Structure prediction request, 130 residues.
Amino acid sequence: MSSISHRELTKSILQHFYDVYNALRYGFLERVYQNALYYELKENGFKVEAQKKIKVYYKNIEVGEYFADIIVNDLIILELKAQDYLVEENEFQLINYLKSTECEVGLLLNFGKKPEFIRKVFQNNIKRIV
Prediction:
């Protein structure tokens, strides 16, 4: 048995990511890829939410909000990019999104010149929800 959280779900999402990338290729705006991936996942039986508002708290005070590109099955956050290549700041953005939710797994998906992805995990038992 694998110890990797949501391994099969992640694998399936990545297959659909590559399907969308191979069909559309490089050069569209991020929103186009988001719409296509949303449709692809929905058509294949996943529960998907696009642009879901996530509130950020500091000492029980709401200090901000962000909108997750896509959340799959209430378990995995997808952060989509359409840039030449991923940079470290993209990874920190995803980690911060994971810190603000009960989701433990996130995928950073780049529809760049070459498709690329990074998988991040931030376990709930080490989160400090204040």
Remarks:
- The chain has one domain: 7-126.
- The helical segments are 7-24, 30-43, 88-99.
